[in-house]
Backbone:
């Protein structure tokens, strides 16, 4: 296991064996769960403080065991499937989305030496698989057998129309700057200047579009809990609900990692091991996303479409053109 | 408050007259059960001068119906429905569905004096 | 091709038991029918079987967000039937308490409205914390936080405790700043503004035709406030303005209530400064109206939600008939007309701006 440990800390590089890769996969999964758990606690406490209240305090010191308690409680409940639902579609959605998200995090290199999972077109693969999510939700909406889920699913696909193109154009600009879509290559191309400095407009567009992709406020139209009950999660029973919560945080982890890798220099930074730098940057981005949740109002779906097409898309095109003009030509 | 006692056949005409005079705000339509008679009360208000005018109509409980005012006053919609299901007064001119009491098919209307609390009643279930 | 959605009696947001049957074509609402009556308790019939001063608890449970206002409206009706004058100081104290009640009610409305629009409970929590301060003041004055029952014929059950004025002033100064902060917080948010502006427009003619009251009416350009146009207690001696907005959309109604909130804070300060000394205790509970067979009285009050008119036919010991014209009932009837053609997400913005309390609606 020594190569893995030293690989994490960025101390030396060795080619991978199957055992190493499996160990890496397990390590990443544990990392994701730890992040989800820890970030869940951070979110509850921080939003509570913004609300001028305390948040969880009883379970463990400072409420750190609260998520564990909720997890255990929810898992111990009965799993029900509505009669009008298509059982396979209904049950497979959340685990499928969760596995795709974990797989995508698995594809991201966490340090300059852990490059076993670095694919040539890594970034493109990530975004192609990410855009499958709304389609899976769409299938789930119709397999759920209730109207709220169907409407939620429709809204999810409509949202897809508004944020997907701006993301693609920003990725194109990133690929141009970094001479390829290799994720490690993108991080290495930021050794002089982080891309947030080189493409500020692109950063803003990407951040907002990622918020829509992750379905966080102000774009949490799918879950909209004061409107259509819980949208697609209306009929989901307790054990699957835990997976849905995990899914939410895992996607946020994925989104923050992507933003940190593409714009904030990935794992580069002095003193601390690269992995720590990457996680720190991802954590800061997640924190920012969370504060937006506490303060922002939800957008209406047609407004979101207008916003996507009138603001995000032209800005992302502008960003692409500027990047070419300034840096390539 | 000006009170006018009128006949049932004059309701629609009086309401229209009041509306043209400026009493275009309908405050309340309600009824009182005086055992021998039912009295239906319409209260109109003139928003400009804050004057109110009340129309009182006496009905025979056995032949309890009033014409609808929904053509002129949109507010009459729910008031009439509530009054009709609480007092058993029919509203001629519209088929008013149940508003407050869903699936209730009782023999006596709730707010009448002959409504006994423990009497058996029928429901549509 | 319309879909029928049932936004059922059980909601995740705090609207009370209201069932909305919406017919939706894509994202546009074709027809919206409110089904009410889930909270119907037969108050108008119950009151006919109780003696006069046994009924205030029933009245309070109608509008459970501003209970004292209904309590006071009912007691005022009985006083009018009796021909009893309210004591001078009691009038001032009642005004102060009613305006505090209005502040508390509008704070709750602000929180739930922000919640409906999608603001994830932040403004809700802040408003509830501030409402708690006002409830504490009301607890000092009456002994209870929610169902006060502190009105008696001709006055109150007890006078304001000593030091009330200073504590009230502290709370009001704090609230003044907080309300400005909340208004800023929401109005500087362009997403909030675009969700409220132009949504659920009710024109002036429509407002009068549909018979709506309160901030809904004033948000559509009609300047009618019972406190100004049909004044009771000491409102004539206090200077305040009726807040009117002419656009008639959700934002106008929101703005009217925010301005009313600030006016109420000013009113309480004014009333506390001008209050005369004296006795505010009312008569004891046992009460008979001699020679009062079928005496008819009618009293109008301005509740936080609108105008409430109590039409009572009085008997010697109990009301023969009490007809309550509740503001929410008629405001909710207008929902169907103003939500035609709006988007699904707008239903809740409109509902929040109408400020519905189902206890008041169903009685």
Residues:
């Amino acid at each position: 296991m020594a190569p893995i440990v030293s690989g994490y800390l960025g101390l030396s590089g060795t080619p991978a064996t199957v055992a190493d890769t499996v160990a890496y996969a397990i390590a990443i999964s544990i990392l994701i769960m730890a992040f989800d758990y820890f970030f869940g606690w951070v979110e509850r406490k921080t939003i509570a403080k913004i609300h001028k209240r305390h948040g969880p305090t009883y379970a463990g010191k400072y409420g750190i065991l609260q998520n564990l308690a909720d997890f255990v409680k929810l898992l111990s409940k009965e799993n029900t499937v509505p009669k009008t639902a298509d059982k396979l579609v209904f049950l497979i959605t959340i685990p499928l989305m969760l596995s795709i998200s974990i797989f995508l995090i698995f594809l991201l290199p966490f340090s300059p030496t852990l490059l076993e999972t670095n694919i040539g077109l890594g970034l493109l693969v990530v975004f192609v698989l990410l855009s499958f999510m709304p389609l899976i939700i769409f299938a789930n909406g119709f397999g759920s057998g209730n109207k709220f889920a169907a409407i939620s699913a429709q809204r999810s696909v409509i949202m897809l129309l508004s944020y997907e193109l701006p993301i693609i154009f920003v990725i194109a600009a990133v690929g141009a700057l970094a001479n390829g879509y290799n994720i490690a290559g993108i991080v290495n191309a930021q050794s002089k200047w982080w891309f947030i400095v080189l493409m500020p407009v692109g950063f803003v567009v990407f951040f907002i579009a990622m918020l829509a992709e992750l379905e966080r406020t102000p774009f949490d139209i799918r879950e909209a809990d004061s409107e259509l009950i819980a949208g697609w999660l209306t009929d989901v029973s307790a054990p699957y609900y835990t997976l849905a919560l995990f899914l939410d945080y895992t996607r946020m982890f994925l989104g923050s990692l992507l933003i940190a890798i593409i714009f904030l220099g990935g794992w580069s930074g002095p003193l601390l091991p690269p992995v720590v730098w990457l996680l720190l940057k991802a954590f800061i981005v997640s924190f920012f996303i969370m504060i937006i949740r506490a303060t922002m109002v939800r957008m209406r779906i047609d407004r979101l479409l207008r916003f996507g097409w009138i603001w995000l898309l032209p800005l992302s095109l502008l960003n692409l053109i500027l990047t070419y003009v300034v840096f390539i030509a | 408050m000006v009170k006018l006692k009128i006949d049932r056949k004059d309701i629609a005409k009086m309401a229209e007259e009041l509306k043209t005079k400026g009493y275009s705000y309908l405050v309340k339509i309600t009824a009182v059960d005086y055992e021998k008679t039912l009295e239906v009360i319409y209260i109109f208000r003139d928003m400009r001068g804050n004057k109110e005018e009340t129309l009182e109509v006496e009905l025979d409980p056995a032949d309890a119906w009033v014409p609808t005012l929904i053509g002129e006053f949109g507010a009459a919609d729910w008031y009439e429905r509530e009054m009709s299901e609480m007092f058993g007064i029919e509203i001629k001119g519209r088929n008013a569905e149940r508003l407050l009491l869903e699936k209730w098919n009782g023999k006596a209307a709730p707010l009448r004096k002959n409504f006994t609390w423990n009497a058996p009643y029928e429901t549509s279930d | 091709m319309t879909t029928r959605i049932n936004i059922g009696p059980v909601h995740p947001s705090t609207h009370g038991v209201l069932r909305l049957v919406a017919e939706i074509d894509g994202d546009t609402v074709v027809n919206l029918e409110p089904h009410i009556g889930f909270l119907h308790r037969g108050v108008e019939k119950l009151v006919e079987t109780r003696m006069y001063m046994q009924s205030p608890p029933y009245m309070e449970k109608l509008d459970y967000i501003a209970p004292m206002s209904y309590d006071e409206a009912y007691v005022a009706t009985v006083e009018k039937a009796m021909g009893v004058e309210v004591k001078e100081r009691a009038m001032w104290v009642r005004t102060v308490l009613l305006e505090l009640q209005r502040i508390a009610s509008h704070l709750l409305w602000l929180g739930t409205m922000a919640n409906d629009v999608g603001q994830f409970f932040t403004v809700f929590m802040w408003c509830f914390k501030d409402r708690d301060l006002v409830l504490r003041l009301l607890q000092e004055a009456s002994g209870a936080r929610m169902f006060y029952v502190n009105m008696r014929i001709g006055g109150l059950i007890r006078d304001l405790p000593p030091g009330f004025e200073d504590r009230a002033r502290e709370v009001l100064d704090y609230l003044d700043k907080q309300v400005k902060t909340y208004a800023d917080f929401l109005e500087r948010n362009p997403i909030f503004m675009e969700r409220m502006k132009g949504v659920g427009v009710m024109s002036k003619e429509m407002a009068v035709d549909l018979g709506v009251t309160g901030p809904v009416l004033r948000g559509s350009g009609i300047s009618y406030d019972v406190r100004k146009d049909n004044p009771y207690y000491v409102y004539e001696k206090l200077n305040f303005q009726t807040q009117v907005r002419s656009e008639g959309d959700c934002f106008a109604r929101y703005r009217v209530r925010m301005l009313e909130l600030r006016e109420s804070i000013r009113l309480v300060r004014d009333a506390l400064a001008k209050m005369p000394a004296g006795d505010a205790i009312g008569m004891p509970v046992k009460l008979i109206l001699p020679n009062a067979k079928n005496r008819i009285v009618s009293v109008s009050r301005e509740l936080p939600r609108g105008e409430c008119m109590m039409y009572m036919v009085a008997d010697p010991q109990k009301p023969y008939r009490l007809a309550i014209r509740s503001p929410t009932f008629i405001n909710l009837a207008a929902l169907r007309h103003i939500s035609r053609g709006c988007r699904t997400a707008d239903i809740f913005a409109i509902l929040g701006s109408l400020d519905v309390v189902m206890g008041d609606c169903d009685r």
